[in-house]
Structure formats: C-alpha cells, structure tokens
C-alpha cells in the first residue's frame, strides 16, 4: 500500500486526451480487478491477526511492528482509497480541460484552412485582374479592387480571431501551441506579401489612371439614368427571390433517421450553393447603385443587402443544425447497433440446452462486463453531445430526445441482461454440479449393489 501511495503521488499527468482516457480506463480496471483482490487479502490478514491475538492470550503477548498493526493497515488502506479517488478526479478534470482546449484547437484548424483557401482565391483574383485592369472601365476596375480589399479585411478579421485562440491555448499550456503559432505566423506572412502585391500591381496603377482620367464623372452621369431604370426593374425580382428561397429552405424538414437527415442535408447544401451564386447578382446591382446618384436607390439597396444577409445567415444556421444532428444521429446509431447485437446474443440463448459450455459462458460473462466498462466512456460522450444540442435549443429536439431515450433504455436493459447472465450462470453451475454428484452417487450405489449380489 505504501508503494502504491508513492506511485500515485509521483505519477505525472499526460499531455494528450487519448493518453488521459487510457489512464482513466486503466484506473477503472485497477479498481474493478485488483482492488477487490487486495481487499480480500486485507480481510484475511485481519482475520489472522485476530487469531494470533487469541492464541497469544495463553502463551504470552505478541507484539507487531507498527506498520503491521491492524489500525495502521486500515489507515493506509483508507489513504490508498482517498488517493485513488483524488487521482480519478484530477484525471477527469484534466480530460474536461483538454476537451475544451481541443475544441478551440479544432476551431483554429478549421479557420486556418479557411484562411489559406481565401488567400488562394485572393491571389488568383489579383493575377486575373492584373492582366485586364488596363482594359476595364475605371469604375469596374475600382469595384473589382474594392471586392479584393474587402476580402483581405475579412482575412484580417479571421487572423485576429486565430490570435485570440492561440493566446488562450498558450495560457492553458496546450501541447500543440508551438506548431499552431508557427502556422499562424506563416499565414500572416503570406497575407502581408499578398497585400504588397495587391498594392503594387492593382491599387497604384489604378490610382495613377484615375488621376489622369478626367472623364469619370461624365461616364457616371451618362450611365446613371440607364442604371436607374435597370435597378428599378430588377429590385422587386430580387426581393421576391429572397422571400421564396427563405420559405423553401424553412420547409425542408430535418428528418427522423440517418438516411432522411443526410438526404435533407444534401438538399440544404444545394440551396446554399444557389444562394452563393445569386450573391453575384446582388453585387452587380450594387455596382449599378455606385455609378448612380439617387439616394432612394441607395436606401433600397441597403434594405435588399440586409435581407439577403439575413437569408445567408438563416441558410447557414440551418446547415449547421443539420450537420450537428447528422453527426449525433450517426454516433447514436452506432451505439444502438452495438447494444442490439449484445442484446440479441443474450436473449437468444437457450438455458435449457443440455450441451451448455459453462466455462465458455463464464469467459463470455467476463468479456461482456469488460466490453461494457470500455464502451461506457464512448456511450457517455454521445449522450453528452445529444444533451448539449438540447441545451442549445436545437430545432430537431424531439428527434434527439427520442434517440437519447432509446439509448438510455437499451443501455439499462443491457445491464439487466448482464445481471441475468450472472444469475443464470450461477444456477446453471449449481444445476450441473447437482446432477454430476447425483450421477456419481448412482454409480456408487450400483457398484456396491453388485458387490452385495455376488457375495
């Protein structure tokens, strides 16, 4: 016990989530396998200690070393129990902490990939615009440059968010912070380089061209009236399209099973693509307004843009809800399938069969118990994910609640079947032992009867 206490005291926490979960599983296995054996040894020693004390009353008092006295053994045993509980709690707290940091790290990886992709797009657009900037009308060229500049500002916002994530991870001593800082620095350097190229190849030449050209205002005046007519004609069409699209997306159901949810998710993705494609039409309308001078047109354009942004947010949220639901249902279905396979093996067993292999059944019981203990961590993780979605007021709460209830009911039923297996196995062993002894007794009687008949 003293050695175990020292080992627990000197044990260091792992850095990774997988290692911590393995350590927690080892601790749980130690509690279920080794600790009961040690407890039996302790009880046996206590019994021997009392027997020796009884015998020493007649032969003389026997003194034990301090470490071998019952009170000291019981005290050390309590220390071991408390130390194991404290270590388990520390491991669970560390797992909880690392899971939170893991989510931040996953968010960092997603957004850094997104940032890399956006930088690729911006770099490609700069190369394309550089080839045709001198051929385009100055208003169109400026509009294209404004679009690129807006995208670069968006990338800067993502980089600021990534810096905040790195700060949090660094403060919490996350083990992959160094690699993530290097990755962020590479993205930042690439962004700075692209900005310089953008300034040199597009902004500076366009500024010089704008200063030399004195007819920009005349062009605006000439095209303003035509643009205003075009704007008025298409404005209502845009509003109607946005309203129809929002109703259509809203009518898409989440579904009740994996296949239905996946089908509806694909449908939502298609709707999102159509919204992204339609965004170009909204952008072209803004170009018309920029070349015009009507204040009322600008106000209507702002209303249209606001409504379109609401549609984008609505579709994106619907997509996120559908993806999170699909992820949960997929995990929950795996757990239900695993439990049903275990259930089928138990309920289909014929205990009245005469050829039952009790040794094999005893091994099966141990295996099933170990499988349940190992699976419990994964099962609880899926349950927690579903409960988290309910706390976030997921729109498909009814479907999630049904899956959670089915999982909990089947898990409880499987635990009852495990207990039934243990009881059935015990009775089967008694049954077979009885008939074995009865058969031996019958053979003995027959043998002695034959002896009596021959004498």
Automatic annotation (TrEMBL):
Keyword line: Coiled coil
One Gene Ontology biological process: cytoplasmic microtubule organization
GO MF entries: structural molecule activity
Ranges in coiled-coil conformation: 91-172
InterPro entries xref list: Plakin, Spectrin/alpha-actinin, Spectrin_repeat
GO cellular component, one term: membrane
Classification via Pfam families: Spectrin (PF00435)
Signal peptide: none
Identification of the protein by name: Plectin
Organism of this sequence: Stegodyphus mimosarum (African social velvet spider)
